[in-house]
């Protein structure tokens, strides 16, 4: 089955901005999204990237400018500098992976976690906060959080991170379709076009 390999960090404000459009593209074309949360600090360490706090003031300032532009264009609110900005995302990542393995809807879950960080000033490294987010979506929080602690979930998390680097990923969000990498939510229209072209060729 044709799919979109979706590599993203559970602290990615840009992933939050692109979440609904990515879901819409997949639904439009009738294809699957393979959700793969990654350890982005590890990806950066292996691909030459830098975490935001280590970037130059000019780059940090431009990020805020771009966020404001995109928020206005999309009609989505994001606080560029939330109270708990980019805490450890390992637990949140494992919860999303566990939810996917259980067949639960992934987009509402990862969106809710990102919304908590970027719109509600909540600490997504706090297990109590994650439990509350999961419960608010109507899921069995005890069951899902316990499942997220399974060794195989950690193994998948590390495998996704390795797979990201192998696929050429160096930032979040990144989308891979038919071996072609699209980096950033601002490339979603190009991803959409690539899928359309692929399906047109296949139907000839």
Automatic annotation (TrEMBL):
Enzyme class: isomerase
GO biological process assignments: glutathione metabolic process; naphthalene catabolic process
Catalytic activity: 2-hydroxychromene-2-carboxylate = (3E)-4-(2-hydroxyphenyl)-2-oxobut-3-enoate
Similarity comment: Belongs to the GST superfamily. NadH family.
Active site positions, chain numbering: 12 (nucleophile)
Enzyme Commission code: 5.99.1.4
CDD domains cross-referenced by the UniProt entry: DsbA_HCCA_Iso (cd03022)
Record key words, sorted: Isomerase
An annotated Gene Ontology molecular function: glutathione peroxidase activity
Domain (DSBA-like thioredoxin) ranges: 3-195
A family per Pfam: DSBA
Protein name as annotated: 2-hydroxychromene-2-carboxylate isomerase
Family matches, as SUPFAM superfamilies: Thioredoxin-like
Superkingdom, taxonomy of origin: Bacteria
InterPro entries in alphabetical order: DSBA-like_thioredoxin_dom, GST_Kappa/NadH, HCCAis_GSTk, NahD-like, Thioredoxin-like_sf
